[in-house]
Amino acid sequence: MTIAGEKVEALLAQETPDLQGAWNALKGWYQEAGDWAPPPSRDTLEKVTKERIDLYTKEAPPGDPIPIIVDPVEVSDEVPGEEEIADAVKCLCNNRSGGPSGIRGEHLKGWLAAAEAGGDDALWQKLVYLIQHAFETGDLPDAMAWSVMVLLPKGGGDFRGIGLVEVIWKVVAIIINEHFKSTISLHDTLHGFRAGRGCGTATIEAKLCQQLAAVDQVPLYQIYLDLRKAYDALDHERCLEILEGYGTGKRIVRLLANYWKKQRIVAKVSGYHGNPFGVTRGVSQGDPVSPTIFNIVVDAVVRYWLSQVCGADAALAGLGYEVKNQCVLFYADDGLLVGRKKEWVQDAFDVLIGLFERVGLRKNTGKMKAMICMLGYISGRQSDGAYERRMTGNGDDFRGRGNTGRWYARSVRKISRRVP
To answer: Which residues, other chains included, contact 307 with Cβ-Cβ below 8 Å and sequence gap of 6+?
Structure first.
């Protein structure tokens, strides 16, 4: 028994148990248990801040901009009315941390409720003026573009950043996001951040490709792609060019460009705040419109890539029945490239990586995987003896069907005769 365990037993054996003391003893055991991240220090904060500055510093992407092969649509670029602003405020979530100003969604909803009830609407009218002026002129207060990056330890000395942007900017972003989603259609290969799509639909399509390959008794080659720090590495200029190519008006493009230009981030670790720094690339963490912007950029890349490796029809209308021969699936910054010919998979993958680099996105080699799916027999749990007989091909298998190797060969031939 450990020292902490003896303390707990002694505390609980008292006539009046010391609950706080028991809690402290258990917490002390956890701290002594090892293998967990220590609390960050000020030196760690300075180091992480420098790493974030390097991460958000612009690197000129290679090559020419991505050509847009879809016809542009007219994305609404009008100054939002008071009713549209009210609908955006109602979409804000409660009980969420605010940005540097401390203003939260509940505060904005309170201003709206007071105005709708006929009470004091001074704060609500100032909010409406601020948002309408931002759309009309593209100008916003400097403090509105500040955000806090809360860094959470995730082991190995690395941190995961949680962005806390100003809630008033969130209202602007929600309005822009609705304009994008209501007019821009994305390719069927994209499954992330879309209504009616998600990991489930992407998994179904991946399994369908595997099952069709199993029916035709052919191998299936797969490459799992991961983009390194994708949200933080997206090039601003290339991103705005793609948005314009999809039909985004000058007001929204100007507003996004000014926000990114004025954006300042302060890293926060264990209650300590680092020095503020500017951002010259990447979409904002915690911003409601960032996933949609990222999807539009990936859509432009994937459509142009499909036009190069599969033809114009696949780029515009989807893969159709060709999905059994080659397929690509994307969920945010993760992708899956599938094909029955390994040469095609390798060549298409090289082209795709080159196109992503032209918008500032690079592959994360450490997290990428390759897989070859071969036709084979998959059984449930079996005894050690049955497993040995199946692996050696000698004797009866665990179902009593004679020699395992011959039974498997007969089954394959029988399936082959059923396939047209």
So the answer is: 69, 314, 315
